[in-house]
Design a protein that fits this description.
It is built from 4 helices and 5 strands. With 126 residues, it is α+β, with helices and mostly antiparallel strands. It has 2 domains: 72 residues, no CATH class; 50 residues.
Amino acid sequence: DDVQLVIEVDETTPAGRTELVSLDPVHIRTESGAFENPKRIRQFSEDAATDVLGRHLMRAADRRRDGFGDVPPDSELTVPQRTAWEVSAVGRLARLGYPVRRQRWLYAFRNRYGFTDTADDAFEQL
């Protein structure tokens, strides 16, 4: 099933905000800093772009899938819900062979769910 994809990059700001704007077409809006190498400002990072676009595309695919359920808009998700969904998307990207920043996402997950073995086990399952 072909899906129209729109990627909008605001190159006027070095910030790194990103959002999934719509599902039909799939529209991802990002600020240019989201695609930069954090160690080399203003230098494109393929890994950063893969991370940002991959997470949004996974979430768009989830929302478009029949039977996924009635999920509130991103703006209404709690921080823990959003973090779990992001970690799930990153895990799927890793299983597809894409590079991910595992430690970054583990830290984010622990901040929301606790620095415990139980939280770490849940992270590994996602």
